[in-house]
Amino acid sequence: MPPAAEHSPLGKSSEYLDTYTPSLLFPIPRAPKWAELGLTAASLPYRGVDVWNCYELSWLLPSGKPVVAIGEFVIPADSPNIVESKSFKLYLNSLNQTVFADCETLRQTLAADLSAAAGAPVAVRLRSLAEVQEEGIAALPGQCIDELEVAIVRYGQPSPALLRCDPNRRLEQVLHSHLLKSNCPVTGQPDWGSVVVDYRGPALDPASLLAYLVSFRQHADFHEQCVERIFLDLLHLLEPERLTVYARYVRRGGLDINPWRSTDAVVADNRRLARQ
């Protein structure tokens, strides 16, 4: 089994290598965090992916000329491991002075290395800056709940007891908030994100959802586990016909992490937001 997060490069001084070093990738098992939520690999109540975007990707052509691109990496939510984010950055940095015959050779190399670390097939797409620029900036779907009047008294621990719904009224609804914040469980650094809840079922009270999301503000956990906790708490409350929860996190170290969890097959809209 891969070592735990405290043995990763997070929070430690690291040498930045600029020649290809796949051994820098540090996998962290998902199983212990699943266990905290009462889950196992065989009992996951969701499907999903973790979409990573890399804005600091560069390598050399055979001529010695550098290339820059934006990388998209899609890791299955049921993969045995996540990839620790600083190790991911160090690994990508190791490509800077490495020659690849062409873009496809690099893509295949990235897919092989990341799949080995995650323990499951990882999809890789390399995009030009012009391609990403043409997509523009996206807006989240549905109703933004951030202007609702709520009194906040809990910040340190996610509090599902704050959530309320009307079991006598059923609807289809998409709600989003930009007020999600949690902390890295190793370094304590803040993780900022926007979250979307898309469901069909008993009417969820939007103000209660906002108070609940803010209760993560001092909570220490990885991006993926925060989204899984939100998904599970809503699943238990609503028992919905369908439910999708996803978060678009602000990048750190040139990487942003975007977990999607759903009762249905996931089609991730990976257009960047204003804060990304």
The average pLDDT value, as a whole number, equals: 94
Alpha carbon gyration radius? 19 Å
Estimated helix fraction: 10-25%
- Percent in strands: 25-35%
Catalytic activity: 7-aminomethyl-7-carbaguanine + 2 NADP(+) = 7-cyano-7-carbaguanine + 2 NADPH + 3 H(+)
EC number: 1.7.1.13
Active site: 184 (thioimide intermediate), 191 (proton donor)
Subunit structure: Homodimer.
Could you explain the architecture of this structure?
The chain has helices spanning 31-36, 85-93, 103-118, 129-135, 206-214, 223-238, and strands spanning 27-29, 47-60, 66-76, 81-83, 123-127, 143-144, 165-183, 190-204, 242-249, 255-262. It has 276 residues and is α+β, with helices and mostly antiparallel strands. The chain has two domains: 5-135, 2-Layer Sandwich (GTP Cyclohydrolase I, domain 2), CATH 3.30.1130.10; 143-262, GTP Cyclohydrolase I, domain 2, CATH 3.30.1130. It starts with 26 loop residues before the first strand and ends in a 14-residue tail after the last strand. The model has no long low-confidence stretch (mean pLDDT 94). Its main location: cytoplasm.
Report a brief summary of the structure.
It is an enzyme of class 1 (oxidoreductase). With 276 residues, this protein is an alpha+beta fold.
Annotation keywords:
alpha+beta; GTP Cyclohydrolase I, domain 2; 276 residues; 8-stranded mixed beta sheet; NADPH_dep_7-cyano-7-deazaG_red; two-stranded antiparallel sheet; 23% helix; 2 domains
Topology (elements, then pairings):
Blueprint (H helix, E strand, L loop, with lengths): L26 E3 L1 H6 L10 E14 L5 E11 L4 E3 L1 H9 L9 H16 L4 E5 L1 H7 L7 E2 L20 E19 L6 E15 L1 H9 L8 H16 L3 E8 L5 E8 L14
Parallel strand pairs: 6-7
Antiparallel strand pairs: 1-4, 2-3, 2-10, 3-5, 7-8, 8-9, 9-10
